[in-house]
Amino acid sequence: MAELAYPVQLEADAVLRDGSTVFIRPARPADHDRLEDYFIAMSPETRRLRFWGASVDITSVTAAALDQDFVHHLTLLAFSGGSDGTVVGGAQYIAIDERRAEASFSVADDIRGHGLGSILLERLAAAADANGVHAFVAQVLPENHAMIDVFRESGFEVSIRAKPGSIDVEFPTSTTPEAIARFDRRRVEASVNAVRAILAPAAVAVVGASRDPHSIGGRLFHNLIDGEFRGPVYPVNPKADVVHGVPAYGSIADVPEPVDVAFVAVPADRVADVAREAATRSVRNLVVISAGFAETGGEGPARQRELLDVCRAAGMRLVGPNCMGVVNTDPEIRLNGTFASGQPPPGRVGFLSQSGALGLAVMDHATRLGLGLSSFVSVGNKADIDTNDFIAYWDQDARTDVILLYLESIKDARRFARLAPTVARDTPIVVVKSGRSTAGARAAASHTGSLLASSDVSVDALFRQSGVIRTATLEEMFDVATFLANQPPPKGNRVGIVTNAGGLGILCADTCEAEGLEVPPLNERTVASLSAFLPPEASAANPVDMVASADGEDYRRTIVEVARDPGIDAVIVLYIPPLESDAPDVARGIVEAATEVDGAVPILTTFMSTRGLPEQLHSPAVRLPSYTFPEQAAIALARVCAYGTWRMKDHGGVPTFADVRIDEAAGIIATALERGDGWLEQLEIEQLLACYGISTVASTVVATVDETADAARRIGGPVAIKAIGAELIHKTEAGAVAVDVAPGEAAERARAMSDRIHAQGIEPTGYLVQRMVPDGIEMFVGMTLDPTFGPVVAVGAGGTAVELMKDIAVRITPITDLDAAEMLRELMTFPLLDGYRGATRMDTAALEDALLRVSALVEDQPGIAELDLNPLMALPRGAVVVDARIRVTTPPGPRG
User: Fold this and answer.
1) How would you label 861-879 residue by residue, b for 16+ Cβ within 10 Å and e otherwise?
2) How many angstroms separate the Cα of 720 from the Cα of each of 468, 886, 896?
3) How far apart are CA 528 and CA 369, in angstroms?
4) pTM for this model (two decimals)
5) Residue 800: its pLDDT value, please?
6) What is the pLDDT of residue 879?
7) Beta-bridge partners for 159
8) Where do the H-state alpha helices sit in 162-240?
9) What does the H/E/C string look like for 359-370?
């Protein structure tokens, strides 16, 4: 069989259900002996079920599996011990007609039940779908229950028919939402098991443990011992017999007992050798503290690749390198595997930091705030285990209620986009993400690329869609965490403010409203109740100013009354003590009020005492978040309110379109790519958009100025004429557009336009003649392919001023029907669509439909790199594309 280019994009690591890893790649001719050994090692029963008989010609079977062209016949192999290790599973398909292929797979007997069969089937189906194979068929022996179960549990829409002596299975290779959900659940299980093995080890070693208590290795070893880790801690130091009173070993290979986690704090050029030694002792996990890897440049990236290759070959998992370690405060484990100067108190918050130095400072700050941690992780360069793995773990950890993240990058944003919304429905995720500046923004030719390169709006879109609370600063992150660790999210955004100082109340109210919260008037019953016991000079409005003489009983009664008002969703309590001796009494009143309210609405406090927070507010029975200034409380409440609203709302669904012609669209792109990466021609654009039901205005492309006259007459009525050319990206600026052209004036107007363009040194390749669109509102819909997040879709006010106005709403694809509706309503210019000042309302449903179809287009067709529909004309009935540009590139491989 003629062999095509080896599909290197199909090479990838895979994490099994127990957290271990295998390497999956297409088979190569050099795999002959490894594959033959795999078949020979099969038990007789496994061989019978796979090949329909115990007597098999192993040589012929091996040769057939390797005789592939990677398109019509593909064999994937799974290896333990790296890409040239031992074969532990395989899957293949062989085409039987233009759209279908016969599929089969097998897994080594000793790793069955670890999810490898499902992973192989998922990878094989994705490759087949990309190669134009749209359905798998398989014949299975009736007693091969394991293989049938893998098909049933795959999430694909499986059709199973019983026939004499066999079971026929057939299913489409394209992934359904159910299949994606099942794949994600398997990945979550693998992530949880991998992280649990790191945070709850039975025994650990410190390679680089030092007798110097000020060194990193010395401090880390001391922390493990001083923190009373519940298992043995083995120091490894070839230059010492004893470290801090514990017998040391010259190499981790010399440690006589099993080691679950090895902390590595040696020079970077020795780390890979340490990993190899750890592999000989079957160490499951490494936490590499050492720096000098991909973060440094020079030899660093190569060192990191070598380290990861060693870990992959041995099936070890890796945290780091260039990290500060991990902490688990569980009293049954007591793991302080860091070189920090202290250990945070136990609590309900899981914290991850990508920056090691920042992580140290943050742990100290959490301790000062009394914000206890369930666990802490510094991930460093995230060469292997990353943020998503820890999010999945904390979601299932009974000791974690809140997840805090400090991120500098997102390694697998597509997985994050699927994982985070599921987690955030129960466990809030609070993130500080650095990199908001425009420094390093890529150059972009399209309107969409230019708009989205100007800031980290893609990150904002990802977090907004995922229900993640993004804070601007670390201080704000801790303010939000203090709230979430102590009080439930409110059910709405209406705030009651209680204070003994009018100025504080005004500051708080101003901040609330600036942050999107509402400070409504209290109802008549509440005002009457307050007026009955507050002094005449007090104000029973909202904010409620009890005046400086208010005591603890006044605070108790006022808080309870305001909290019971049906128009209030949260209460902020402010206090400045006129006399420090009054503070304990007021604190008792606040705690008693919170006890009476009993969580019906969240209560936040600002206690501006020079002596700090009174002891009464530290009551373990009633947990109240307290802040230094009222603005902090208001901002924290606003962030949590937005999260609470997201958690309660319907998120809609991603629609499917029966009229979409996916294969035809793929053919248009493939044909265009034969010319190389670049912009589609006008006819290709119209054909591609038509495949997805996106309406374009009637138009004709002609080669010369003189031909525009005939084209205009055929279209009829006034037309627009636009010059076409690779250099004509923004046509209006180049004077390459003529509008309201009568058919009899077409050639003259086109010639004048051509002269203007030639004067700029630009040679048009043709002219587009379009029917003039009725009066409507110019909108813009675009997409750019973000290297981290994948397709990013934007909508906004269109026309020539799109980049000036920057009135856009952004989402990561795929978008739901509710996303599309919300995007339009986020725009400052939405009132123009909705009949502003009696104007005609535009068809917003048609705009939403166009957005959803663009999302489907760019999700289905990974070759689209940029897309501009500008203007997309919103009309009283319908919406039509007037001008469009689409750039295509050869896709690197299937998206995650």
Assistant:
1) bbbbbbbbbbbbbbbeebb
2) 46, 20, 42
3) 39
4) 0.83
5) 63
6) 96
7) 170
8) 177-199, 216-226
9) HHHHHHHHHHHC
Cβ–Cβ under 8 Å, residues 203 and 680: no
**pLDDT of 611 above 80:** no
Contact 369, 404 (CB under 8 A): no
Q: Which of 23-37, 137-151, 859-873 has the lowest mean pLDDT?
A: 137-151
Q: Rounded to an integer, what distance in angstroms lies between the CA atom of residue 741 and that of residue 787?
A: 42
Question: Minimal CA–CA distance to 419: which of 692, 106, 191, 149?
Answer: 191
Interval 368-423: pLDDT, tens: 787 899 999 999 999 999 999 999 999 999 999 999 999 988 888 888 998 999 99
**Residue 440 predicted with pLDDT over 60:** no
Please name which of 589, 510, 580, 581 lies closest in space to residue 546, comparing C-alpha atoms.
589
The single-letter code of the amino acid at 598 is D
pLDDT-derived band of residue 893, with 50, 70 and 90 as boundaries? Answer: low
Contacts of 66 (CB under 8 A, 6+ apart): 27, 28, 29, 31, 32, 35, 75
Q: Which residues partner with 103 through β-bridges?
A: 93
* pLDDT tens digits for range 35-57: 999 999 998 888 888 888 777 88
Q: Where are the alpha helices (DSSP H) in 674-798?
A: 682-691, 707-715, 746-759
Q: Best-predicted range by mean pLDDT among 315-319, 716-720, 889-893?
A: 315-319
Determine the residue type at 121: L
Mean pLDDT for 804-825 is: 89
What's the average model confidence in pLDDT over 631-649? 95
- 32: exposed, middle or buried (Cβ count in 10 Å: 0-12, 13-18, 19+): middle
Answer for the pair 484, 430: CB distance below 8 angstroms, yes or no.
yes
**Beta partners for residue 249, in sequence order:** 236
Contact between residue 782 and residue 447 where contact means Cβ atoms under 8 Å apart: yes
Choice between 710 and 287, residue whose per-residue pLDDT is larger:
287
Cβ atoms of 621 and 644 within 8 Å: the answer is no
Question: Both tokens of residue 210?
Answer: 């030092």
Nearest in space to 884 (alpha carbons), one of 860, 842, 859, 853: 853
pLDDT in tens, 78-112: 999 888 899 999 999 999 988 899 999 999 999 98
Residues contacting residue 764 through CB under 8 Å, at least 6 positions apart = 723, 724, 725, 728, 736, 754, 757
Q: Mind spelling out the 3-state secondary structure of 255-282?
A: CCCCCCEEEECCCHHHHHHHHHHHHHCC
Spatial contact of 692 and 891, defined as CB atoms under 8 Å apart: no
**Six token digits for residue 466:** 């995922």
643 in Cβ contact with 467 (< 8 Å):
yes
Q: Is the pLDDT of residue 591 over 90?
A: yes
DSSP type of residue 494: B
d(CA 69, CA 5): 8
Tokens of 378: 């510094």
What pLDDT is attached to residue 775?
Answer: 83
Q: Both tokens of residue 161? A: 């028919």
What are the helix (H) ranges across 67-176?
116-130, 145-152
Cα separation, 527 vs 518, whole angstroms: 18
Cβ neighbourhood burial of 162 (10 Å; 0-12, 13-18, 19+)? exposed
Least confident of 115-119, 326-330, 525-529, 662-666: 662-666
Q: In the prediction, which pLDDT does 447 show? A: 44
CA 694 – CA 278 distance, rounded (Å): 58
CA distances from 451 to 6, 457, 673, 821, 872 (A): 38, 9, 26, 21, 17
The alpha carbon of residue 771 and the mean position of all alpha carbons in its chain are separated, in whole angstroms, by 43
| CB atoms closer than 10 angstroms to residue 669 | 20
Q: In the chain, pLDDT over 70 holds for what percent of residues?
A: 95
